[in-house]
Design brief:
Length: about 90
């Protein structure tokens, strides 16, 4: 698989979504996010494990910053995102 998950996303919205993730998840996660986003192989590692439905949901969230912000306000969701990021780099 390739990294086409982000091809369906406006680049400005992607940058805002990444910044929102970094702000919500803290400095340690921000460093991990920066590392992941700059490495196509790491992105592929994360997205290759996702179903098409999950990819579509991610795209919808990125394209709707208000929904993403609301979702990330849940501590449980924030922790799940951190766990997902941790698994992707292995």
């Amino acid at each position: 698989m390739n990294n086409d998950i982000f091809d369906k996303v406006d680049k400005d919205k992607l940058e805002k979504a990444v910044q929102l993730l970094k702000d919500k998840l803290g400095p340690a996660a921000a460093a991990r996010i920066d590392s992941t986003m700059s490495d196509p192989q790491m992105i592929n590692s994360l997205t290759s494990k996702m179903s098409q439905k999950d990819k579509d949901n991610v795209v919808r969230l990125i394209n709707n910053p208000m929904a993403m912000k609301a979702l990330l306000s849940s501590p449980k969701v924030a922790e799940l995102v951190k766990q997902f990021m941790d698994k992707g780099g292995r």
